[in-house]
Amino acid sequence: MEIARTKAEIRRLVGVAKKAGQTVGFVATLGALHGGHMSLIERARKETDFVVVSIFLNPTQFGPDEDLDEYPRQEEKDLALCEKAGVDVVFAPSVEQMYPSGHCTVVKIEGLSEKLCGANRPGFFAGVSTVVAKLFNIVEPDIAYFGQKDAQQGLIIKRMVEELDMPIEIRMCQTVREEEGLAMSSRNAYLDAKQRKQANCLYQALQEGKKLIEGGQVDRDKVTAAMERVITQAGPCSIDYVAAVDSQSLEPATAENRSWLLALAVRIGRSRLIDNIVVEIPGPS
């Protein structure tokens, strides 16, 4: 496995692979790799010839009061995991490599970026789409892999790729969960044992919403109210949002929508946790 620290290095290594006719798969990460990341890498390994993983803790997607300084950093462990998983190259640039002095270009996807997580984290998705656009332009992958846990991010990246005519296929992969249902996340490391048990309420709330919808309930306010009850009854927390939206537009879901995204963001202790599921509603027979 190679480790590239500069844009020139990663471009050279990917260029050699492409010249040999290999397809390039790409997984972008902030580091602190867990089972969710490894599932993306495993899929990329199966479906492409040359796998690139980026490890870059992107400062532009963290607000002034967020956890950039506390975010888990474990590069040595991450590199070992990548090597064991058969990654060909890890791109681990410095902030100076990605954002040279005077950098002022921002990529923003209007409409999708202001909803859900974007409502309470202004600038977050601009930071995400900017760094992903840069990584795509540097690595030039054929296929990039993202997790369904970050459903809104996936929609934004798909829209960016489509509208900026990037020749990249985006593949969304199933959320990887702990045994009790908690979605794997680097921020789970902030939870103590009691909080981790409490955090299972997120998945339980999503399942409650799904059960109601599949039972014929299409009043989104009643669905989200039931989900909120599950969360608040589990213990002290702060709910950023609990939402039922159309899975593509992220507009509030209605009875006419055939695919609902149930999504939530909840703060438990120091951790801001997100999760979601898609619920398909059968149309008239």
Gross CATH architecture of the largest domain = 3-Layer(aba) Sandwich
Distance between the termini: 53 Å
CATH fold-type name of the largest domain: Rossmann fold
Supply the number of helical segments: 10
CA-based shape: globular
Could you explain the architecture of this structure?
There is one protein chain. The protein is of the alpha/beta class and 285 residues long. It folds into 2 domains: 2-173, Rossmann fold, CATH 3.40.50; 186-279, 2-Layer Sandwich (Pantoate--beta-alanine Ligase, Chain: A,domain 2). It has 10 helices and 9 strands. The protein has a 6-stranded parallel β-sheet with strand order 1-4-3-2-5-6, sandwiched between helices. A 3-stranded antiparallel β-sheet has the order 7-8-9. Helix 6 (124-139) crosses helix 7 and helix 9 (201-214) runs antiparallel to helix 10 (220-234).
List keywords for this structure.
single chain; 285 residues; alpha/beta; Rossmann fold; Pantoate--beta-alanine Ligase, Chain: A,domain 2; 2 domains; six-stranded parallel beta sheet; three-stranded antiparallel beta sheet; 10 helices; 38% helix
